[in-house]
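#struct-queue
[09:14] JT: dropping the first one here, sequence first, then the structure tokens:
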Amino acid sequence: MRLLTVFGKGIYLMANPHPDEQVLYGKIRDEEIKVPLVIWDLIYRYLGDEISAITQITVSYHRYNEVIPVSDAKKILEHIKKINVIIRKILHHDRIENENEKLDELKNYNTPLHPVINELFFHYIGNDVYGINMIVSYHLDPLDESPIPVEEAQKILNKTFTMKQFMDRLREATHQEVKF
């Protein structure tokens, strides 16, 4: 567990490591597995933007020790929906039907993610996105909507920071310089 300071407050990053993380990163190194640049572009351009938006909403309240109001909690859910769409399109780019979709550059890309990358990506990104969705959805129960408490905002921040850290670790492990 690592302590990160954000606006003078300590945030503990508590990502549960993948049980075979070292083995998988070893395979990436030994087999020189890469992430296709079109995928990196989508990860940083779209996925990264959505994660940053969730972080900004959450930090804007957390730094003042305030609850996240229902209106902004709903915005977080909208960003989660967009992340899920992006993930589905990265995973199943062969199913993109609409020529006007933002991710149409994937239509001409016909190689799936390497299974090792896929496993790590969806362990970290998938689990954290699901966790944020569960936290926010719990408080947006249609029968009793309530703001997100400060302690839960901390959990959301932990998950967004963990996702960003994973993307950086994966980029470093694949020895790819991604410039946008």
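[09:21] JT: and here's the second one, same format:
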Amino acid sequence: MITLSANVYSHEMTPTYPKFVQSFMNGVSVTTMNLFNKRKDVSYYKVGVFTSEWKPVPFVSQYVVIPMAYLDSVSFDVYIATKDLGSVEYICSISQLRTGSTVTSKICSRFK
């Protein structure tokens, strides 16, 4: 019997269960997310906000695509219209691969 073992490297996004709070603008809520790149083959991550059915929810952030070096971390704010908060289920980060990479990673934080 042959046993194969491999390290799996991904990225991290915290908090796992974020909470929105009122921002400085009326009718807009905000949460702060932290992203850590543990992949040498990925230099960019795309951010998205989704419903429980994986439909996109409009949002504003400093980044939609985050440039990141290996072992770098970035904090970013995500702004959502307060009227849309009831439909928000996930904030996700998705690796944007360079040529030659074969494994994508998608990490999502979920609202309770």
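[09:30] RK: nice, looked through the second one.
[09:31] RK: Strands lie at 11-14, 21-22, 28-37, 42-50, 60-61, 65-67, 73-81, 90-97, 106-110.
[09:31] JT: good to know. The radius of gyration is 16 Å.
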